[in-house]
Amino acid sequence: MAGLSLVNPMEGAELHPSEVVVLYATAAARLPPVPPRGFRVFHRAYAARPTVEGAVAALTTGCYPHASARKPAVAELLKPTPVSIREYRGGALPQTGPTALVVVTAASGEAIDEPTETSIHVPLWIRGLGFAPASDERLVSLTDIVPTLLAAATVAIPPNMQGRSLSGPARELVFAYGRLGEPGEWRALIRGFDKIVVDRQLTITHLYNLALDPEESNNLADSLSHGLLRDELRAHLRTAMRQLGDQMDPSGLKRR
After folding, report:
1. Are 162 and 244 in contact (CB under 8 A)?
2. Which residues contact 182 (CB under 8 A, 6 or more apart)?
3. Closest CA to 60 of 174, 163, 156, 192
4. For 126-163, how does the pLDDT look when each residue is reduced to its tens digit (9 = 90+)?
5. Which of 25, 53, 85, 242 is the most exposed place for a label (fewest CB within 10 A)?
6. The predicted structure's pLDDT at residue 254
7. pLDDT exceeds 50 at position 241
8. What residue ranges define each of the domains in the chain, with the CATH number in brackets?
9. In terms of pLDDT, which residue wins out, 153 or 229?
10. CA triplet 70, 76, 78: central angle to 5 degrees?
11. Secondary structure of residue 245 in the 3-state scheme
12. Cα 109 to Cα 230: distance, rounded to the nearest angstrom
């Protein structure tokens, strides 16, 4: 299988990274406070599940934790290009050659398994061939990293991979979940700047407009004027659960 091959958009020349390095911190505060120069900074990246388990599943298989078992790891799919996925534990970012591709992120914002923006909203910085330094406002899931690498390498993305390549159309929404099987089980969906959180019974417990209320201080879940929006977002959430195989059978009914 060919090694990872990316295109430098500035020069239009096909180049081959010497390695791929993916670093994740357990919480955003463990990363440097400011991205080093040369990175593309994705400002609206979200964890699949805001735990180390969730980050490892997303960054190695491009899938949510419940669907990651027996999925091929990106290091196998991208052979012979060396791929290193490891925890970042502080200090300077590792030195890499000029043709390396580096991804830096965090498993969670605050290292807690909760649906708040401070938990599921995570930093994401990418440096390397094909990623010119820029500020990027599109919605991103950490499950998108693996298919992005595969697409750049012209390696076929497995049909059961749940993320999508950043080289394709921008996402309209992202989905996250947590505390599965516990009394505090939750799911969250962000479409544009509208966000809902549901409990284990899929009852909407929180509704926010993140553009107007980034601190999530005004819960609109019981607002009479937002009934249509609630219905639309819950329908999108059910669709996402069905597509991801998240406790839903193919008809869209929740499995017991």
Report:
1. yes
2. none
3. 163
4. 988 778 899 999 999 999 999 988 877 778 888 889 99
5. 53
6. 53
7. yes
8. 6-168 (3.40.720.10), 174-244 (3.30.1120.10)
9. 229
10. 135
11. coil
12. 26
Alpha-carbon distance values, 215 to 124, 125, 131 (Å): 20, 23, 30
Mean pLDDT of the chain: 88
Q: Are strands 20-25 and 83-87 parallel, antiparallel or unpaired?
A: parallel
- Say how far apart CA 51 and CA 44 lie, in whole Å: 18
Distance of CA 2 to the CA centre of its chain: 26
